[in-house]
Amino acid sequence: MRAVVLEGVEKSFDGTPACSQINLSINKGEFFTFLGPSGCGKTTLLRLIAGFIAPLSGAVFIDGNDVTNLPPEKRKVGMVFQNYSLFPYLTVSQNIEYGLTIQKKTARERQEIAERYMEMVGLTGFGERKVTELSGGEQQRVALARSLAVEPEVLLLDEPLSNLDARLRDKMRAEIKSLQKRLGITTIFVTHDQTEALTLSDRIAVFNQGRVVQVGTPRQIYDTPHNVFVAGFVGDTNLFRVARSGSTVRLENGMELSVPAGSESGDWLSIRPQNIRISKTPSREPNSFQGQVLERQLNGVSIDYIIELGQTVIRAAELNSFEKEDEFRPGTTVWVTLPEKRLRLLAE
Ligand SMILES: Nc1ncnc2c1ncn2[C@@H]1O[C@H](COP(=O)(O)OP(=O)(O)OP(=O)(O)O)[C@@H](O)[C@H]1O
Ligand SMILES: [Mg+2]
């Protein structure tokens, strides 16, 4: 069952397109993420779904009904805005209770619900404070509590974790996900953070310049990006311009690599850093080359190696395990293997 359907949705501001030909179908109960760089139209599309702005053309359906011409309050959606949009003259409790008043809940019910959601977002005891007396992260949590309190059918979250510190962010991320699962709320989550998108989502739509460039599960997006933009935006990758002849590609530095039979066509070769193997001894495997370690960067869980390979540089990554402590210092000669089945040819 479809919860939200967008058909050919278009929006421009002063003649400049912000969303172009958006066709998306979001299932009931799904955790769906809009992922893309700043300015690619994510907030605009959320506002179109919520009804705060109207599309130039195309239609928005919620629960099978065409809501394109309905005002926001008739759409059964809850939204957490990127800038929170709290009522500054009201207290935390009053902000959270706002939508419950419209739902005609009694004062007692409102108070109970507000307390429950304040606890959930870690703001117990903040009820009487004015929202102007809160930090950015606290305001963000009030906004989240306010939108959840009305238990909407569709929840729209515009970067709701961006102002939180790393620990609180992890906690709230887990909280949002478990709540979403428990209540079965269809959720559209906006972020430019790929890790957040990969960990939370059932499916992701990757946006670039107002268009959807790929829709898929986190695994599909990460493992089989459709083009250079998706490969580079979602996760780290090495990209080389190549010329292909049959099952061989030639890099601009003259290096030749064999690619899997049946590879798509494309002028770019992509390989993720963690799929590159490094060894101190020569390798007889295909696609192996001698190189030299230029730099070693510790990232905590992993170690990145920048390796010079025939007038080009490549980034490889290995798990930072105990045995790896002293391996591959800068200056070390190494053999680098690019396993054939990990190579992907991509179009621009
Ligand atoms: N009210 C407006 N008037 C004019 N231009 C606008 C308006 N709202 C958005 N835009 C433009 O539309 C484009 C998309 O903006 P949008 O806010 O949807 O991007 P975004 O993907 O949410 O970015 P961010 O990650 O920075 O929040 C941008 O170029 C922006 O400048
Ligand atoms: Mg935005």
Describe it for me?
The structure is a single chain. The chain has two domains: 2-229, 3-Layer(aba) Sandwich (Rossmann fold), CATH 3.40.50.300; 236-346, RNA polymerase II/Efflux pump adaptor protein, barrel-sandwich hybrid domain (OB fold (Dihydrolipoamide Acetyltransferase, E2P), Beta Barrel). The chain is 24% helix and 35% strand. A six-stranded mixed beta sheet has the order 6-7-8-3-9-10, sandwiched between helices. It has a five-stranded antiparallel beta sheet with strand order 13-12-11-14-20. The model has no long low-confidence stretch (mean pLDDT 92). With 348 residues, the protein is of the alpha+beta class. The protein contains eight helices and 20 strands. It has helices at residues 42-50, 92-102, 107-120, 136-149, 166-183, 194-200, 218-223, 228-233; strands at 2-13, 16-27, 31-35, 57-62, 65-66, 77-80, 154-158, 186-191, 203-208, 211-216, 238-245, 248-251, 256-258, 268-271, 277-279, 288-298, 302-309, 312-319, 333-337, 344-346. Adenosine-5'-triphosphate binds at residues 13, 18, 36, 38-44, 82, 192.
Concise description?
Helices cover 24% and strands 35% of the residues.
Mean pLDDT, as a whole number? 92
- Major sheet size, sense and barrel closure: 6 strands, mixed
CATH level-4 homologous superfamily of the largest domain:
P-loop containing nucleotide triphosphate hydrolases
What molecules are bound to this protein?
adenosine-5'-triphosphate, magnesium ion
Distance between the termini: 34 Å
Which radius of gyration do the C-alpha atoms yield?
A: 24 Å
**3D shape:** elongated
Strand order of the largest sheet: 6-7-8-3-9-10
CATH architecture of the largest domain: 3-Layer(aba) Sandwich
Helix content range: 10-25%
Total of helices? 8
